[in-house]
């Protein structure tokens, strides 16, 4: 079975948790895209839900699927968010942001009663950090922000190259919020919660891709089938 089919399997499993009348956070990325497509089929068949998209790309897709949308200015709480991840560890801590939507993804996840992460089995890791850690930053004072980030990394016991993300056109990638992303190639992160706490106070850091304590369930699809892991 190819990777795309595995992602669709995980999305279908997560859809089993959706009930009529739910307010849903709609994730961003290749796996979450399958969930939005499948949810659209349910809506076409009569299911009543409302969604909050985590990116402009997801908003456009959801509108094409005729999924009713709202915002967190209109409603104050979501029943469930379904989203993908770049990495998931045994405590269900995540690295997210490979697609550049980490800020909105974290706002939506934090406003949700539950978060289901859907992924293929290659995203499951013993420790976070093999995937570069995205850090969304303000362009102003970038060098000063990078110096503070390097200090935070050192305190957190990691180090590595910091690369300003470029788009396919070769220009600096700009997020939906108008910010830039630094991808930090750190290798193994022994204490992800501590590193998250060290990055949070840096003035130029808008948000980082360490999602700590937000995911409640992970659905992993692999060649051997579906594995569901609940946070202890």
Query: How confident overall, as mean pLDDT?
Result: 97
Structural shape: globular
Put simply, the count of helices is 6
Q: Which structural class should the secondary elements be placed in?
A: alpha/beta
Give the N-terminus to C-terminus distance in angstroms: 30 Å
Order of helices and strands: HEHEHEEEHEEHEEHEEEE
Give me the count of strands: 13
| Helix percentage range | 25-40%
Q: Rg, please?
A: 17 Å
For the largest beta-sheet, the strand count, sense and barrel status come to: 6 strands, mixed
Physical arrangement of strands within the biggest beta sheet: 2-1-3-6-12-13
Strand content: 15-25%
Residue runs with pLDDT of under 50 for 5 or more positions: none
Would you write up a description of this structure?
- This protein is of the alpha/beta class and 232 residues long.
- The protein contains six helices and 13 strands.
- The strands form three sheets. Strands 2-1-3-6-12-13 form a six-stranded mixed sheet, sandwiched between helices. Strands 8-9-7-10 form a four-stranded antiparallel sheet. It has a three-stranded antiparallel sheet with strand order 4-5-11, with helices on one face.
- Helix 1 crosses helix 2 (30-44).
- The model has no long low-confidence stretch (mean pLDDT 97).
């Amino acid at each position: 079975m190819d990777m795309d089919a595995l992602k669709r399997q995980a999305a279908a499993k997560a859809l089993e948790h959706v009930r009529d009348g739910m307010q849903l956070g709609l994730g961003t990325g290749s796996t979450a895209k399958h969930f939005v497509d499948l949810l659209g089929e349910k809506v076409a068949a009569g299911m009543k839900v409302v969604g909050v998209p985590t990116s402009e790309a997801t908003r456009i897709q959801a509108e094409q699927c005729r999924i009713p949308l709202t915002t967190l200015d209109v409603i104050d709480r979501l029943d469930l968010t379904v989203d993908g991840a770049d990495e998931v560890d045994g405590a269900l801590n995540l690295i997210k942001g490979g697609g550049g939507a980490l800020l909105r993804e974290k706002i939506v996840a934090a406003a949700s009663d539950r978060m289901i992460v859907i992924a293929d089995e290659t995203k499951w890791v013993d420790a976070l950090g093999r995937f570069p850690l995205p850090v969304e930053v303000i362009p102003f004072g970038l060098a000063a922000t990078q110096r503070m980030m390097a200090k935070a990394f050192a305190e957190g016991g990691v180090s590595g190259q910091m690369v300003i993300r470029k788009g396919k056109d070769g220009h600096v990638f700009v997020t939906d919020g108008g910010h830039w992303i630094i991808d930090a190639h750190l290798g193994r992160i022994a204490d992800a919660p501590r590193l998250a706490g060290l990055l949070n106070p840096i003035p130029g850091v808008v948000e980082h891709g360490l999602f700590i304590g937000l995911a409640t369930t992970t659905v992993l699809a692999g060649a051997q089938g579906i594995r569901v892991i609940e946070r202890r």
